[in-house]
Amino acid sequence: MDEKLRELPPKPGKPRKKPNILLRSLAFLLTLALVLGAVALVVYRDRINFDAIKRLIRYQSLDRTETEQAEPFPHSGSARDIFALVGGDLLTCSTAGVRLYSESGTKYVDEPVAMQNPAAVTAGIWALAYDIGGRELRVIHDRSVAFSLTLDSGESFLSARINSSGLLAATIQKSGYRGSVLVYDGSFTPQLQLNLSSSFVMDAAVIGGGETLAVVTMGQSDGLFQSRVELYAIGQLDPQETPTPTAVCPLDESVILDLWDGGSEGRLLGEDALFTVSPQGTLLGSYDFSDRYLKAYALSGDSFSALLLGRYQTGSQADLVLVGSDGSVLGSLSVSEQVLSLSASGRYLAVLTADRLDIYTSDLTLYRTLEGTQGAQKVLMNADGTAMLVSSEYASLYIPG
Fold this sequence. Notes:
By secondary structure, this protein is mostly beta strands. It contains two helices and 32 strands. The strands form eight sheets. The protein has a four-stranded antiparallel sheet with strand order 1-32-31-30, with no helix packed on it.
């Protein structure tokens, strides 16, 4: 006998809901939008100006003129002062002391100190001011004087460097040695004093996260003068023994004029060549300009250094050359006006002439132009695309829209 199949009655409880087609469609569209947005960020990341978004957020409280400049503020200095940016603030160093201003002109530091030849070095949110040939040094951090150093009588500073971790290396002249380097840790406790007798010490910096001291020396090799970078392992130096470098990188006969430590590489500017050295002491590249005169330079671009080179020592005609880490030319531009100041930070390069500020990206594409710079004699570039313009009495932040 055939049995008839019967459907079981539904269990008691809440009735089953039908899927909401509208909500499922919205969820699908939202997911699709997020995926497409992520793909667009990857594909068009070079065309999207994230720096403009950062500027819009950070500087929204600053009043601006119609030329996109913040209201100028007096810096209580002169055109002969040394200027630098530290964390976006303006640092001024003069023969009378050190001052620090915010981008709107609020004064945070006013440190009286007598200096004959003031100099300033910055690295991220750290800065130092010192007297070349003198005995005074001040470290600025967190908008205050974090450390003060006065050398003993008979000693003097040749140079001083601080890195983004607050590690300090000061090159000094000291009786009995051709060069001496003082190294301080992040709390400004003395770590070591390196004394050299075989060659002259020109400059020094703590690199590689604090484990390595890079020392620029000049001595004789086969009867010829030669500059070189010597690397020393800080934790392995014995003050009772003659210091031995762990690596040496020759830099030919060029006298080294300046040094910039970018973390992953060091850039050293000589009188006729630019060198790039790895933290391990390997020469990554060099660019020779011995056939031209160096008129101005900026070493601190993220992926480039800028050199203003002229065929003649006088005159305004020159070439603006961008040099990569391997010594290759990334771009060049003919300049016929007198350049008052160059500054590089991040992917930007600022070029200040008598009546105009031009900001370029790292491929020498013109990014912004500001006409009428109101007597500015110095420009300081920020990594977010803003630029501080400094005249003999006033300073003002240019904020591209």
